[in-house]
Structures are given as structure tokens and as C-alpha cells.
Specification:
- With 297 residues, the chain is α+β, with helices and mostly antiparallel strands.
- It has 2 domains: 134 residues, Diaminopimelate Epimerase, Chain A, domain 1 (Roll); 152 residues, Diaminopimelate Epimerase, Chain A, domain 1 (Roll), CATH 3.10.310.10.
- Helix content is 19%, strand content 40%.
- The protein contains 6 helices and 17 strands.
- The protein has an 8-stranded mixed beta barrel.
- A hairpin with an 8-residue loop joins β1 and β2.
- The protein is globular and about 55 Å long.
Length: 297
């Protein structure tokens, strides 16, 4: 029997049971892909993170859904960094650190800052890639909405993992959405790889609290949980979309998600570069270790 140390981290929050939880497994290079995916199903989480050595960065990690690898993910990155720092594996100077983390999509710069409010992790996501566009009606029908509920043209954007960004006209429309798994799978037939997936990320302008500037939802079909509490990778894609299409006045804003699930999450977001040629997205969030132990296999 082999044992692997793990931390269960709530990401994009400073309080227990907030944000999006993720299990971070250390020394996971010997853990099979089947076991990595099985652990995701065992925990009923959306993703788990697996730390391993890297010859390209200071640390390496791979992220898995219940049925596949995801090349870049936001809340597992925050969770991974919180776990590394808490276990003393990152050297801090005056409460700060900067290092690199290799994930499936490439190497990301990471910054850490400790304060009286906790640990803030900043990842610089990759240069946004703008892909295919879709009819508003085609995205709306997946959620029982009308085409007039969507502002602008839904579009695939990737800062490491692609999402179809769709801006809804108001929070009333966002509250009404109900995912049709059949229609979702119609757009993503069996065998669709992650890079070709059309996974809509729904956003409205205006936060759920006074400090927020956007509020978002990501609804998912089985075997994934029905809704993601906070989606850091999609938040980066959403920020690039809003800035590129002129829907926000400032490239720096506060993104909120998960409040309607009872798991409020928040991130500070900054789109880098000019409006029509963004070069990256900085997504910052806190994290809190909820529990830790050993995985025994």
C-alpha cells in the first residue's frame, strides 16, 4: 500500500466552506491516471490537483476531472499554491514569494502575498486566444433562455482552457438558467476532447455584493457536479472577453461567483495589454486549508 499526503483546500475564499474546494495530492508522480480520476469521483469534487516534479518550472501539477485531464484550472492552482506554502515548500521573504508552476497548458508565473487577511495567490494566465463564435439562440436554448437574454456574440476564449463566454442581460436571466444535459451533449458529442469543448460560462455585469463587478455561473452535466462554485480559469477567459469587446471600462475588476450556492467566491482580475491585443490575465484569490491527511492506495 502506498500513501500520499493531501490537503483539502477551499479556494477563492478566506472562510471554511466558501469558494471552490479542491484536494491537492503531493508526490503524485506514481499515481496512475485511473486513480487520479477515481479520487475526483470519490470526493465528488469538480477537480483534484496532483503535484509532481517539473524540469520546466519550480513546481509541477496536473489537474483532473472525473473523466479527463484539464490542462489549466484556476481554483486547483490557488489550492496547489496554498498547500505548497502552508507545508513550507515555498520560501517566503517578507511574506511574499514569486515562482513558476508548470501545468498541462504550460508554465504560469505565480505570486504569493501574506497579510493579516490571509494568503493571496496570483496566477498570470496565458495570452488569451479568441476562437469560434456562436449564435446567441444556440447558447440560450441550452439553458431555457431566449436569444434576447444574451448580450453580444458568445465566443470561445482560452487562457489555457477554453470556455464559451456568454454575457446575460441581467441577474434575473442568470437565475432562470436550467441546463439541458441533452443539448449540452449535442454540442459536445462523445469523444470531444477538452480543447474542442463548448462549455458556456455565463456572466452578468454587476456583482452580487457591493464590491463585485461581475457575477457568473458554470452549470455542468454529470459526471461533474451540477454547478461549479468558482471557476478561476473561466474567469480569466471572461475578463479577456469583456475587455476585448469593450464591455468593461477598466481592465481591473472584482469577479464574484458561488454566492447563490452558499459558497461565495471572489477574485481580483486584471487583463494585461491593450484592449484589442491582451497579453495575459492576472487572477488573484485567497485559499484556506480545511483538512489534510493521507491517501492510502
Amino acid at each position: 500500500m502506498k500513501t500520499y499526503a493531501f490537503d483539502w483546500v477551499d479556494a477563492f475564499t478566506t472562510v471554511p466552506f466558501g469558494g471552490n474546494p479542491c484536494v491537492v495530492v503531493h508526490g503524485a508522480h506514481g499515481l496512475s491516471i485511473d486513480d487520479r480520476q477515481a479520487l475526483v469521483r470519490e470526493t465528488s469534487l469538480s477537480e483534484c490537483a496532483y503535484l509532481m516534479a517539473s524540469d520546466k518550472a519550480d513546481f509541477g501539477a496536473r489537474y483532473y476531472l472525473a473523466d479527463k485531464e484539464i490542462l489549466m484550472a484556476g481554483h486547483p492552482t490557488v489550492a496547489t499554491v496554498v498547500s505548497l506554502v502552508d507545508r513550507g515548500l515555498v520560501t517566503l521573504e517578507n511574506g511574499c514569494a514569486a515562482f513558476t508552476l508548470e501545468v498541462g497548458a504550460g508554465v504560469m508565473p505565480i505570486e504569493v502575498e501574506l497579510s493579516k487577511d490571509g494568503m493571496l495567490v496570483t496566477m498570470t494566465q496565458m495570452t488569451p486566444v479568441f476562437g469560434d463564435t456562436f449564435l446567441a439562440a444556440d447558447i440560450a436554448r441550452i439553458y431555457g433562455l431566449g436569444p434576447d437574454d444574451i448580450i453580444g456574440i458568445p465566443q470561445i476564449v482560452s487562457t489555457g482552457t477554453p470556455f464559451c463566454i456568454a454575457v446575460l442581460k441581467d441577474k434575473a436571466a442568470l437565475r432562470r438558467v436550467k441546463l439541458s444535459a441533452d443539448l449540452w451533449h449535442e454540442m459536445n458529442p462523445p469523444g470531444t476532447n477538452r480543447s474542442g469543448m463548448i462549455e458556456p460560462f455565463l456572466v452578468t455585469l454587476g456583482g452580487e455584493t457591493d464590491v463585485g463587478d461581475t457575477y457568473s455561473r458554470l452549470l455542468l452535466p454529470a459526471p461533474m457536479p451540477p454547478e461549479d462554485p468558482f471557476t478561476g480559469s473561466a474567469t480569466g477567459c471572461m475578463a479577456a472577453y469583456l475587455w476585448f469587446h469593450g464591455l468593461i471600462d477598466s481592465p481591473v475588476f472584482i469577479a464574484e461567483q458561488g454566492h447563490w450556492m452558499g459558497r461565495p467566491g471572489v477574485a481580483k482580475v486584471e487583463v494585461l495589454g491593450p484592449r484589442k491585443a491582451p497579453t495575459g490575465v492576472r487572477v488573484s484569490g485567497s485559499g484556506r486549508i480545511l483538512m489534510r491527511g493521507e491517501l492510502q492506495l
